[in-house]
Amino acid sequence: HILNSQNKKMAQARLNKVASQVSDSSKVFLFTQDDPVLTMEQRIQYERDGFIVVRGLLNDAECETYLDRFKEICTMTPQEVKKLNFLVMRDVSIAKTDFVVGENSIT
């Protein structure tokens, strides 16, 4: 779910206000748990943006391996994807055009 910039600002303002007023952060966060894995800054970023960036987690070769696999999955037929037991969602607005199936059509 992608938020527009106005909704992101409102969500961030709400999160900041509530975080400053509530000592128990488990009441503030909807998508993360209070544990030692993520810093407070990472939790706030995830709540706001829906993802976090962990720099240095993977080296270039690992990134290339995962990117290659992602591209492979994106070009599979629905029958091939079904065998993997997960769902690939293609952007409907792109799927209805002459756009070639690939990683740019995945949402």
Topology:
Elements: H1 5-21, H2 40-49, H3 60-74, H4 78-83, H5 92-95
Helix fraction, binned, reads 40-55%
Overall shape: it is extended
Mean pLDDT reading:
76
The helix count comes to 5
Count every beta strand, where a strand is a DSSP E run of 2 or more residues. 0
The run of helices and strands is HHHHH
- Biggest sheet, in brief? none
Q: What low-confidence regions span 5 or more consecutive residues with pLDDT below 50?
A: none
Helix and strand composition category: mainly alpha
Q: Could you give the distance between the termini?
A: 10 Å
Radius of gyration in whole Å, from Cα? 18 Å
User: Strand percentage, roughly?
Assistant: under 5%
What tags apply to this protein structure?
107 residues
Word description of this protein:
By secondary structure, this protein is mainly alpha-helical. The protein contains 5 helices and no strands. It has helices spanning 5-21, 40-49, 60-74, 78-83, 92-95. α1 packs antiparallel against α2. The longest helix is centred in the N-terminal third of the chain and has 17 residues, at 5-21. The radius of gyration is 18 Å and the shape is extended. It starts with a helix and ends in a 12-residue tail after the last helix.
Short description:
The chain has 107 residues and is mainly α.
